[in-house]
Amino acid sequence: MTDYNDQALISFQHSFLGRYKHDYIELTMYDSFFATPLLLFLYDVTTRHHNVLADALVNMQLSLNIHDQLDHHFDEDIEVEQLKSNQLHVLMGDYHSAFFYKLLSTHHETNMLHFFLTYIKEINEYKIELLHHDHSIEERLNKVTNVYSCLLQGVIQYFNLESEYDNLFIEQFVLQHAEALPLYWMNSSSEEMRHAIQSRLKVSDSENNTYI
Known about the structure:
- This protein is mainly alpha-helical.
- About 70% of the residues lie in helices and about 0% in strands.
- It has helices at about 5-20, 40-45, 50-70, 80-105, 110-130, 135-160, 165-175, 190-210.
- The longest helix is centred in the middle third of the chain and has 27 residues, at about 80-105.
């Protein structure tokens, strides 16, 4: 497995954005979105089987992550400069989302496109539930894990990789890097989130006897 150290993340960020960043957007605006190895892991797993799909899915996941970090900011009392920043991030998210459709349609991968649209729809349904319904901390943890692993689960199913990456493995990987995710989805204090995440990891480790 790739060594997901800081240098590897920075290298991936520069390489990927060198192909897909708009000239108008400063590179540093992406720093928080590449702060976890989740994008790189999605890319690594997918690119072994289909390079175009790897780029398409990272663009889509990046778009979803950018939009995630905006939802809780919108407020009628928001400062003008913050509003402008939010609007720019919305455009960034839409810009990267468009690459998902463009890449797969340009390469005539319509079956692949429709397959992954189901997973994107599922992610948005999880987000709606998180935003508009009350859940226990454990239920929220399950849904947050699904939000950030759904596209990867799609890759695993599409290429029949279940023997290489089981559900426990994916859950552990997501949760181990959860602190760098937009965890306001949890609607709980940081201490509660950390406790729930660490408890889940301890249980998973005792069952699997491995860490990623």
